[in-house]
Amino acid sequence: MNHLELPVSVAPPAQLAGGLLDLLQVEGALLALKDADSGCYLWANAPCLAWLGADAQRVVGATDLELLPQTEANALQAADARALAAGQAVVTEDHRFERAGVRTEFHVVRHVLAPADGTRQILSLWRDVTQSRRDAGRLQSALDQIERQQHAVEVLRRQHAQGLDRPSELFRREHFEEHLRREAALSQREHREFALVLLALDRVESMRQTLGDPAVQAVTQSMGLLMRTNTRAMDVLSQLGDGRFAILLSGVGLATAHSRMEHLRRACATEVVVVNGQGFNFEVSIGVASFPHTAATLADLSQAAVRALADARQRGGNRVALASIRLGELLPVH
Protein backbone atom coordinates (compact mmCIF):
# COMPACT_ATOMS: atom_id res chain seq x y z
CA MET A 1 0.00 0.00 0.00
CA ASN A 2 1.32 3.38 -0.94
CA HIS A 3 1.34 6.03 1.77
CA LEU A 4 1.12 9.66 0.97
CA GLU A 5 4.22 11.22 2.43
CA LEU A 6 3.82 14.79 3.57
CA PRO A 7 6.76 17.06 4.15
CA VAL A 8 7.28 17.56 7.87
CA SER A 9 8.88 20.72 9.18
CA VAL A 10 9.72 20.56 12.87
CA ALA A 11 10.07 23.78 14.80
CA PRO A 12 13.44 24.35 16.44
CA PRO A 13 13.75 23.30 20.11
CA ALA A 14 13.79 26.89 21.35
CA GLN A 15 10.48 27.61 19.59
CA LEU A 16 8.95 24.39 20.92
CA ALA A 17 10.06 25.27 24.45
CA GLY A 18 8.60 28.75 24.10
CA GLY A 19 5.29 27.34 22.90
CA LEU A 20 5.19 24.88 25.78
CA LEU A 21 5.81 27.66 28.29
CA ASP A 22 2.99 29.70 26.77
CA LEU A 23 0.60 26.74 27.03
CA LEU A 24 1.50 26.11 30.67
CA GLN A 25 1.08 29.78 31.50
CA VAL A 26 -2.40 29.78 29.96
CA GLU A 27 -3.23 26.84 32.25
CA GLY A 28 -2.04 28.88 35.25
CA ALA A 29 0.89 26.60 36.03
CA LEU A 30 3.81 27.95 38.06
CA LEU A 31 7.27 27.28 36.62
CA ALA A 32 10.61 27.91 38.28
CA LEU A 33 14.25 27.08 37.64
CA LYS A 34 16.79 27.04 40.49
CA ASP A 35 20.51 26.52 40.82
CA ALA A 36 20.82 23.21 42.70
CA ASP A 37 23.93 24.14 44.69
CA SER A 38 22.94 27.60 45.93
CA GLY A 39 19.13 27.25 45.82
CA CYS A 40 18.93 30.61 44.02
CA TYR A 41 16.23 31.21 41.45
CA LEU A 42 17.49 31.45 37.88
CA TRP A 43 14.10 32.09 36.29
CA ALA A 44 10.36 32.04 37.12
CA ASN A 45 7.28 32.58 34.97
CA ALA A 46 4.68 35.26 35.68
CA PRO A 47 2.31 33.11 37.81
CA CYS A 48 5.25 31.96 39.92
CA LEU A 49 6.45 35.53 40.40
CA ALA A 50 2.94 36.51 41.49
CA TRP A 51 2.84 33.71 44.06
CA LEU A 52 6.29 34.67 45.37
CA GLY A 53 5.07 38.25 45.62
CA ALA A 54 8.05 39.81 43.85
CA ASP A 55 9.20 40.84 40.39
CA ALA A 56 11.84 39.02 38.34
CA GLN A 57 14.58 41.46 39.36
CA ARG A 58 14.14 40.59 43.02
CA VAL A 59 13.50 36.86 42.53
CA VAL A 60 16.43 35.97 40.27
CA GLY A 61 19.48 35.36 42.45
CA ALA A 62 17.41 35.05 45.65
CA THR A 63 16.66 31.92 47.69
CA ASP A 64 13.38 30.77 49.20
CA LEU A 65 14.55 31.93 52.63
CA GLU A 66 14.90 35.46 51.27
CA LEU A 67 11.48 35.45 49.62
CA LEU A 68 9.16 33.38 51.81
CA PRO A 69 8.31 32.81 55.48
CA GLN A 70 10.77 30.43 57.11
CA THR A 71 8.34 27.51 57.48
CA GLU A 72 7.44 27.65 53.78
CA ALA A 73 11.05 28.09 52.72
CA ASN A 74 12.19 25.15 54.85
CA ALA A 75 9.53 22.91 53.30
CA LEU A 76 10.60 23.86 49.76
CA GLN A 77 14.30 23.39 50.52
CA ALA A 78 13.61 19.93 51.92
CA ALA A 79 11.62 19.03 48.79
CA ASP A 80 14.45 20.26 46.57
CA ALA A 81 16.89 18.10 48.54
CA ARG A 82 14.71 15.04 47.98
CA ALA A 83 14.59 15.77 44.25
CA LEU A 84 18.38 16.04 44.13
CA ALA A 85 18.73 12.74 46.00
CA ALA A 86 16.57 11.09 43.35
CA GLY A 87 19.02 12.08 40.61
CA GLN A 88 17.40 12.85 37.28
CA ALA A 89 14.17 11.03 38.10
CA VAL A 90 10.97 13.04 38.16
CA VAL A 91 9.78 13.63 41.73
CA THR A 92 6.24 14.67 42.65
CA GLU A 93 5.03 16.12 45.96
CA ASP A 94 2.08 18.02 47.38
CA HIS A 95 2.57 21.31 49.23
CA ARG A 96 0.01 23.09 51.39
CA PHE A 97 0.28 26.75 52.33
CA GLU A 98 -1.95 28.95 54.45
CA ARG A 99 -1.82 32.72 54.07
CA ALA A 100 -4.20 35.13 55.74
CA GLY A 101 -6.53 32.25 56.57
CA VAL A 102 -6.68 31.02 52.97
CA ARG A 103 -5.35 27.53 52.32
CA THR A 104 -3.78 26.67 48.97
CA GLU A 105 -2.64 23.25 47.77
CA PHE A 106 -0.15 22.61 44.97
CA HIS A 107 0.89 19.44 43.19
CA VAL A 108 4.56 19.96 42.32
CA VAL A 109 6.72 18.08 39.84
CA ARG A 110 10.50 18.47 40.13
CA HIS A 111 13.16 17.36 37.69
CA VAL A 112 16.92 17.79 38.05
CA LEU A 113 18.64 19.04 34.88
CA ALA A 114 22.32 18.63 34.08
CA PRO A 115 23.44 21.24 31.53
CA ALA A 116 26.63 20.77 29.56
CA ASP A 117 28.58 23.14 31.83
CA GLY A 118 28.43 20.59 34.66
CA THR A 119 26.04 22.51 36.91
CA ARG A 120 22.79 21.12 38.23
CA GLN A 121 19.48 22.86 38.05
CA ILE A 122 16.03 22.05 39.48
CA LEU A 123 13.06 22.64 37.21
CA SER A 124 9.72 22.65 39.05
CA LEU A 125 6.18 22.71 37.71
CA TRP A 126 3.46 23.75 40.17
CA ARG A 127 -0.24 23.10 39.61
CA ASP A 128 -2.87 24.62 41.91
CA VAL A 129 -5.13 21.75 42.98
CA THR A 130 -6.98 23.61 45.74
CA GLN A 131 -10.35 23.65 44.00
CA SER A 132 -10.12 20.11 42.64
CA ARG A 133 -9.23 18.75 46.09
CA ARG A 134 -12.07 20.76 47.63
CA ASP A 135 -14.49 19.43 45.01
CA ALA A 136 -13.27 15.88 45.65
CA GLY A 137 -13.80 16.37 49.37
CA ARG A 138 -17.32 17.67 48.80
CA LEU A 139 -18.10 14.73 46.53
CA GLN A 140 -16.84 12.29 49.15
CA SER A 141 -18.90 14.08 51.81
CA ALA A 142 -21.98 13.81 49.59
CA LEU A 143 -21.36 10.09 49.03
CA ASP A 144 -20.86 9.57 52.77
CA GLN A 145 -24.09 11.45 53.45
CA ILE A 146 -26.01 9.30 50.96
CA GLU A 147 -24.67 6.22 52.73
CA ARG A 148 -25.74 7.62 56.12
CA GLN A 149 -29.20 8.44 54.79
CA GLN A 150 -29.56 4.94 53.37
CA HIS A 151 -28.57 3.58 56.77
CA ALA A 152 -31.13 5.86 58.42
CA VAL A 153 -33.88 4.62 56.11
CA GLU A 154 -32.89 1.04 56.90
CA VAL A 155 -33.03 1.76 60.66
CA LEU A 156 -36.51 3.25 60.32
CA ARG A 157 -37.59 0.31 58.16
CA ARG A 158 -36.40 -2.18 60.80
CA GLN A 159 -38.17 -0.24 63.55
CA HIS A 160 -41.36 -0.32 61.52
CA ALA A 161 -41.01 -4.09 60.95
CA GLN A 162 -40.54 -4.59 64.70
CA GLY A 163 -43.62 -2.54 65.54
CA LEU A 164 -41.49 0.27 66.98
CA ASP A 165 -42.98 3.09 64.93
CA ARG A 166 -42.33 6.59 66.23
CA PRO A 167 -44.03 9.84 65.20
CA SER A 168 -42.94 11.21 61.81
CA GLU A 169 -42.97 14.71 63.33
CA LEU A 170 -41.15 15.91 66.44
CA PHE A 171 -43.31 16.30 69.55
CA ARG A 172 -44.50 19.74 70.55
CA ARG A 173 -43.37 21.14 73.89
CA GLU A 174 -46.51 20.21 75.86
CA HIS A 175 -46.42 16.58 74.72
CA PHE A 176 -42.70 16.36 75.44
CA GLU A 177 -43.19 17.70 78.95
CA GLU A 178 -45.89 15.08 79.57
CA HIS A 179 -43.47 12.32 78.53
CA LEU A 180 -40.85 13.89 80.79
CA ARG A 181 -43.19 13.75 83.81
CA ARG A 182 -44.00 10.11 83.10
CA GLU A 183 -40.32 9.22 82.80
CA ALA A 184 -39.55 10.95 86.10
CA ALA A 185 -42.31 9.02 87.86
CA LEU A 186 -41.05 5.75 86.36
CA SER A 187 -37.49 6.62 87.39
CA GLN A 188 -38.52 7.20 90.99
CA ARG A 189 -40.54 3.98 91.16
CA GLU A 190 -37.91 1.74 89.56
CA HIS A 191 -34.81 3.63 90.77
CA ARG A 192 -33.39 4.12 87.30
CA GLU A 193 -31.89 7.14 85.60
CA PHE A 194 -32.70 9.05 82.43
CA ALA A 195 -31.21 12.02 80.59
CA LEU A 196 -32.62 15.30 79.35
CA VAL A 197 -30.82 16.82 76.35
CA LEU A 198 -31.30 20.36 75.02
CA LEU A 199 -29.98 21.23 71.56
CA ALA A 200 -29.66 24.56 69.71
CA LEU A 201 -28.52 25.31 66.19
CA ASP A 202 -25.42 27.49 66.22
CA ARG A 203 -25.61 30.91 64.56
CA VAL A 204 -29.17 30.32 63.31
CA GLU A 205 -29.88 34.05 62.88
CA SER A 206 -26.74 34.51 60.82
CA MET A 207 -27.83 31.54 58.69
CA ARG A 208 -31.24 33.12 58.18
CA GLN A 209 -29.77 36.48 57.18
CA THR A 210 -27.25 34.95 54.82
CA LEU A 211 -29.19 32.07 53.27
CA GLY A 212 -32.80 32.88 54.09
CA ASP A 213 -35.67 31.07 55.82
CA PRO A 214 -35.65 28.11 53.37
CA ALA A 215 -32.15 27.24 54.58
CA VAL A 216 -33.24 27.28 58.24
CA GLN A 217 -36.25 25.10 57.38
CA ALA A 218 -34.04 22.64 55.50
CA VAL A 219 -31.62 22.46 58.44
CA THR A 220 -34.54 21.88 60.82
CA GLN A 221 -35.71 18.96 58.67
CA SER A 222 -32.20 17.51 58.55
CA MET A 223 -31.92 17.94 62.30
CA GLY A 224 -35.13 15.98 62.84
CA LEU A 225 -33.88 13.12 60.66
CA LEU A 226 -30.50 13.05 62.38
CA MET A 227 -32.14 13.03 65.80
CA ARG A 228 -34.30 10.07 64.80
CA THR A 229 -31.47 8.04 63.34
CA ASN A 230 -29.14 8.66 66.28
CA THR A 231 -31.62 7.74 69.02
CA ARG A 232 -33.79 4.73 69.88
CA ALA A 233 -37.48 4.25 69.24
CA MET A 234 -38.13 4.58 73.01
CA ASP A 235 -36.49 8.01 73.18
CA VAL A 236 -38.71 11.10 72.88
CA LEU A 237 -37.84 13.94 70.48
CA SER A 238 -39.20 17.47 70.46
CA GLN A 239 -38.80 20.81 68.71
CA LEU A 240 -39.10 23.50 71.37
CA GLY A 241 -38.83 26.52 69.11
CA ASP A 242 -36.87 28.12 66.31
CA GLY A 243 -33.64 26.12 66.08
CA ARG A 244 -34.13 24.58 69.54
CA PHE A 245 -34.77 20.91 70.26
CA ALA A 246 -34.96 18.45 73.14
CA ILE A 247 -34.41 14.71 73.58
CA LEU A 248 -35.51 12.47 76.44
CA LEU A 249 -33.14 9.48 76.66
CA SER A 250 -35.01 6.84 78.60
CA GLY A 251 -33.05 4.70 81.09
CA VAL A 252 -29.73 6.33 80.15
CA GLY A 253 -27.11 7.84 82.47
CA LEU A 254 -24.93 10.89 81.99
CA ALA A 255 -21.90 9.12 80.47
CA THR A 256 -23.94 7.14 77.92
CA ALA A 257 -25.98 10.20 77.05
CA HIS A 258 -22.79 12.19 76.42
CA SER A 259 -21.43 9.49 74.11
CA ARG A 260 -24.62 9.32 72.06
CA MET A 261 -24.96 13.08 71.80
CA GLU A 262 -21.33 13.47 70.75
CA HIS A 263 -22.09 11.05 67.92
CA LEU A 264 -25.12 13.16 66.98
CA ARG A 265 -23.06 16.36 67.11
CA ARG A 266 -20.48 14.91 64.71
CA ALA A 267 -23.25 13.74 62.37
CA CYS A 268 -24.67 17.28 62.29
CA ALA A 269 -21.26 18.84 61.62
CA THR A 270 -20.69 16.59 58.58
CA GLU A 271 -24.21 16.86 57.15
CA VAL A 272 -24.48 18.77 53.86
CA VAL A 273 -27.75 20.65 53.37
CA VAL A 274 -28.60 21.78 49.83
CA VAL A 275 -30.94 24.70 49.14
CA ASN A 276 -31.36 26.15 45.64
CA GLY A 277 -28.29 24.28 44.45
CA GLN A 278 -26.07 25.65 47.23
CA GLY A 279 -24.61 23.22 49.76
CA PHE A 280 -23.67 24.22 53.30
CA ASN A 281 -23.03 22.69 56.73
CA PHE A 282 -24.46 23.47 60.13
CA GLU A 283 -23.39 22.94 63.72
CA VAL A 284 -25.23 22.39 66.99
CA SER A 285 -24.60 22.99 70.69
CA ILE A 286 -25.84 20.37 73.13
CA GLY A 287 -26.43 20.42 76.90
CA VAL A 288 -26.94 17.14 78.79
CA ALA A 289 -28.38 16.63 82.30
CA SER A 290 -29.42 13.41 84.02
CA PHE A 291 -31.95 12.43 86.64
CA PRO A 292 -31.26 11.97 89.52
CA HIS A 293 -27.47 12.52 89.35
CA THR A 294 -27.52 16.19 88.30
CA ALA A 295 -30.96 17.12 89.66
CA ALA A 296 -33.48 15.79 92.16
CA THR A 297 -36.59 17.41 90.63
CA LEU A 298 -37.83 18.04 87.10
CA ALA A 299 -37.47 21.80 87.58
CA ASP A 300 -33.86 21.38 88.66
CA LEU A 301 -33.25 18.97 85.78
CA SER A 302 -34.50 21.50 83.24
CA GLN A 303 -32.34 24.25 84.74
CA ALA A 304 -29.30 21.97 84.75
CA ALA A 305 -29.81 21.18 81.06
CA VAL A 306 -30.30 24.90 80.27
CA ARG A 307 -27.04 25.76 82.06
CA ALA A 308 -25.17 22.98 80.24
CA LEU A 309 -26.47 24.22 76.87
CA ALA A 310 -25.46 27.79 77.73
CA ASP A 311 -21.99 26.52 78.64
CA ALA A 312 -21.66 24.76 75.29
CA ARG A 313 -22.66 27.92 73.41
CA GLN A 314 -20.44 30.22 75.48
CA ARG A 315 -17.47 28.01 74.68
CA GLY A 316 -17.92 28.59 70.95
CA GLY A 317 -20.65 26.09 70.06
CA ASN A 318 -20.37 22.82 68.17
CA ARG A 319 -19.81 20.90 71.40
CA VAL A 320 -21.53 18.79 74.04
CA ALA A 321 -21.52 20.10 77.62
CA LEU A 322 -22.54 18.11 80.70
CA ALA A 323 -24.42 19.40 83.73
CA SER A 324 -22.54 19.25 87.03
CA ILE A 325 -23.17 16.22 89.22
CA ARG A 326 -24.69 17.09 92.59
CA LEU A 327 -22.15 16.99 95.41
CA GLY A 328 -24.54 14.85 97.40
CA GLU A 329 -23.97 12.09 94.87
CA LEU A 330 -20.25 12.08 95.62
CA LEU A 331 -19.88 13.04 99.30
CA PRO A 332 -20.69 10.46 101.99
CA VAL A 333 -23.39 11.39 104.48
CA HIS A 334 -22.23 11.32 108.13
UniProtKB/TrEMBL annotation:
Pfam families: GGDEF (PF00990), PAS_4 (PF08448)
Keyword presence, Iron-sulfur: no
SUPFAM superfamilies in alphabetical order: Nucleotide cyclase, PYP-like sensor domain (PAS domain)
CDD domains registered for this protein in UniProt: GGDEF
Lineage: Bacteria, Pseudomonadati, Pseudomonadota, Betaproteobacteria, Burkholderiales
Coiled-coil stretches: 129-159
Keywords annotated in UniProt: Coiled coil
GO molecular function, one term: cyclic-guanylate-specific phosphodiesterase activity
Source organism, top-level taxon: Bacteria
Cross-referenced NCBIfam families: GGDEF
Stated name of the protein: Diguanylate cyclase (GGDEF)-like protein
Domain GGDEF, residue spans: 192-325
